[in-house]
Amino acid sequence: MTMKLKTLKSYDNYVATQTTVNKQKLSHVWVTPKELRLVAACVRRHVSNPKFGLCHGVRNGFEVKGLRELLGFEIVGTEISDSATQFENVIQWDFHDVKDEWLNGVDFIYSNSWDHSYDPEMMIQRWLSCLTPDGVCILEWSRNHLPKSVYRADWFGIDLPDFLSMLRRQGVVEDVIRFNRVEWTQFPRQPLRWCKGLVLPLRLIVLRAKGQVS
Ligand SMILES: C[S@@+](CC[C@H](N)C(=O)[O-])C[C@H]1O[C@@H](n2cnc3c(N)ncnc32)[C@H](O)[C@@H]1O
User: What are phi and psi for residue 205, nearest 5 degrees?
Assistant: First the structure.
């Protein structure tokens, strides 16, 4: 299997590593406006009458703000670092844990930070337990999620086929959307960058819990 998971020395060491790297990169944003538009479209397509969403591992909350604007309902972000308190609608929270009020109560969960998990199978199982009957998890996969990217705070890496197999053991993969991270409007100014984006496109994986309505 093409995957790599760092050993957990201690939980305190895990939180300290995540917090240090989070603060070093506090103003960085990985997710793009283009990806957020795709996530919002996905939520509208797959979930009837959504009212509440979670984004896990949000750093400065860029995706929370963007998705709240696009979707117009309550969305909360989780962030393990104590920097969370600086950002609106972001709570300091370890995404491996589930609040009682989230159980069967979340219409969508979006994350590109699942590769920071020290126990990805448990994490996915817990996220699925939060979904409403037609709720979905939307997980980004990119080259940054490959095993070779496991370093410092990036705890877990897996190639796409193995990630899909792992997800299928836990839930139902309903859709896999390929997209170029670079907007087509950038092609005239950055043709090389745009073409590079085609070589290893990103994916949005739409996952439901087993036995859910689709
Ligand atoms: C790669 S960054 C991605 C940030 C943001 N999603 C983006 O697109 O820019 C991962 C973030 O997840 C946070 N994180 C790591 N482990 C976490 C956990 N167990 N629970 C909540 N947040 C976590 C890190 O502190 C970091 O800010």
Answer: -105, 125
Give the mean pLDDT of 92-99.
98
User: Mean pLDDT throughout 46-60?
Assistant: 98
For residues 141 and 182, the answer to whether their CB atoms sit within 8 Å is: no
Q: What is the pLDDT of residues 115-174, one digit of tens each?
A: 999 999 999 999 999 999 999 999 999 999 999 999 999 999 999 999 999 999 999 999
| Whether 43 contacts 53, CB under 8 Å | yes
Q: pLDDT, tens digit, for every residue of 179-205?
A: 998 888 887 888 888 787 777 899 999
Q: Which CATH class is domain 32-209?
A: alpha beta
Residue nearest to atom 6 of ligand 1 (CA): 58
User: What residues does ligand 1 touch, defined as CB less than 6 Å away?
Assistant: 18, 22, 29-31, 56-59, 62-63, 78-81, 94-96, 112-113, 116
One DSSP character per residue, 200-212 reads S-EEEEEEEETT-
Distance (Å, rounded) from C-alpha 6 to C-alpha 21? 16
Rounded Cα–Cα distance for residues 92 and 174 (Å):
30
User: Domain limits of the chain?
Assistant: 32-209
Reported residue count of the chain is 214
**Structure token digits, residue 143:** 């080259």
Backbone torsions φ then ψ of 103, nearest 5 degrees: -55, 125
Identify the three-state secondary structure at position 211.
Answer: coil
Are 132 and 107 contacting, i.e. CB atoms less than 8 angstroms apart? Answer: yes
Which of 99, 116, 127, when mutated, tests ligand 1's pocket best, judged by the most ligand atoms within 8 Å of its CB? 116
